[in-house]
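Cast an eye over this sequence plus tokens and explain the fold to me:
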Amino acid sequence: MQTITATLTGDEAARINTLRSYYHDDLYDARALGDLTRLAARLCSTPIALLSMIDEDGVRYKAKTGIESLDFAREDVFCSLTALEPEMLIVNDVCGDERFASSPLVKAGPAVRFYAGAPLVTPEGYAIGALSVMDSEPRELSPEQTESLSALARAVMEHLNCRRARLELENAADERKRVEEILQTTDELLSRVKEQNRALTHVNTMLKEKFAEHKIAFDAVVSSEERYSLVVRSANQGLWDWNLRTNEIYYCPRWAEMLGCDQTEIGINPDGWFTRVHPEELETVHAELMAHLLGLSPSFQSEHRLRHKDGDYRWVLSRGLAVRDASGVIYRMAGSLSDMTPQREAEKQLLHNAYHDVLTGLPNRALFMDRLNRSLNRARHRDDYLFAVLFLDLDRFKVINDSLGHPIGDQLLVALARRLEICLRPGDMVARLGGDEFAIILDHLKHIKDAIQAAERVQRELTLPFNLSGHEVFASASIGITTSLIPYEAPEDFLRNADTAMYRAKDQGRGCFELFDTGMHETALAVMQLENDLRRALARSEFKVYYQPIISLESWRIAGFEALLRWVHPEQSFISPLKFIPVAEETGLIIPVGYWVLREACEQMRSWQKEFPSTPPLSISVNLSGKQFAQPGLIDRIKEILAQTGIDPGSLKLEITESAIIDNTETAAAMLKQIKALGIKVSLDDFGTGYSSLSYLHRFPIDTLKIDRSFVTRMNLPKNSEIVRTIVTLASNLGMDVIAEGVETGDQIVQLTGMNCEYVQGYLFSQPIDSESARRLLEEIYHKGLGQPDVASI
């Protein structure tokens, strides 16, 4: 059998000599050491605890609980190794440790699987024993339990040191008494034997030494008492000892301190404890106490509230064990009191944080969804129960964040939360779902119009400005509404439809609300399917570039083409750009698709330029999306495409919209200058439909203004005709070219020619066509020119 071999560290002879100073039987208070041993088992939640001393002959057990037979050799027990470790020895599963696997403690009763021992270290630094806990099941100690066991081991040593010092003090007192008896006979001895002066001198010296030893012993007692008190306090335990025969309880100072009292205020009566228990828990505390005293529970343990001196209640954990006399009668009970208030408050805060938004203090998505689920269940079982959800999203919140900073944005969210709370009735709930999204549950509605009125009430509340750190901020929200009149299986479906209605409201403009209908859901599903198909379209080569010619009114020749993206869906054939371009913009797919169009168009134009050389060469116009324009690597990608295709940068025109440059004019101006530095021309698309501010035109290096088709189509109206004339004149004065889009009639050509418009494009000449059709068009008419058409015949 493999045994545990342990050679204790340090000078063994000196250690044994130090240990012998603890051999005195009066040193060991069985009750006190038994209490500490049982407390160790209780705090560590183990069935077995031992207090042992280790000498050259074996192991001496001074206290135990949970085990009877202890007839084991020194080499077979765990505690002999504990003294070898600088810290505690903890073995979570002894079967996995070859040092212990064959020990009789493991193989036979009590079949130990877990062991933890704290060494008993003397002031001289020698380990003379261990305070150990054991269990028949593998387990782990928590950090708090580990510290408690270590503190109790220190408390044992302080107790032994204290009693040893007292014994030494008693011995010193006895010795002093003997010396005093000697002194009483000194005069007589001096008169008889003068020669004994030397002996008397020796006695006096001895007396001084004994007095010195007495002083050292007395100081050791005081120091040990102080250390013992510190150990108990460091464990943060309020100890108590209840004498059931006298019905008196000793409360240690720490017990009273936890309640803001001193010991005199608590007294020795049990009422000092039980009159302070919260009324709601008093009956439970009594029941748990009686269950242990009647033997129905192995220990007393009760978590309850005690009244503090300041009037508030503190959560505490009281634990204790009954002590029986030789006849088995319970005569006392001892235990500890722990302050659980910090843990309880932390748990309460964690629970609150789990279900509430940290910034606004409102319920969060998790709590909202739980409430929504309960409302749905109620609606399924009660035909007369009607409720609704309002889904709110702040309009242009990003603009506020970007312009005034995120701290102001956070202040706005908090202020909005308070205003939304004002709009609620008792029983309603408002939650922050995340970002600038909020949701409201309107409970117990009489009619669907009540939900609409609630949305109107919120909109009216938001018309008032917010004062945020000196900034006056106006905000609005788009609101989607859905009600329980439509049956739902899951709360997620309910919220999704409210979200869908919110986006429909946002499409209507700022500060609008929309009531959900089933058609919205079908539309949302179609958009989702469109997005999925769109993500695969580029890889499947479903995109095509079509070309619409741009005609010079001066030469009546094709000056160039505008490249336009078309999607040939395998099932739906051509999908309108008006349908899929917004989805591509929203998902960010417009960026890779936009670069693909740019490369395709440049390659095609370079091929046509070689086949149909002219002066000036044909040009290609390509739309640049707002998201592309905002990309940090835009210039590098353009350079890369120019190098790959070999097209002359002067033949490339990039078309941008006003909205792409107006939000951040400084950055936009710098980006356009870099584009111009490459030799590329810049066109401002759809001019007149956006900001159309003359104040920014001179700041940007723009070469061409493109008049939006909406003005050209209605040129028969005097107002629109003057707008077109103004744009043409403005472009001429600024040294820019001008292109009129959407030309479809001869009358429009006549008017534009009279206004000195230079270029036109539209269905009058050609609709957008594929590359092969465009090539045939160039081949048929480019060399001979279009000629002056008969306007009357068009």
Observations:
- The chain has four domains: 12-144, 238-346, 356-516, 530-786.
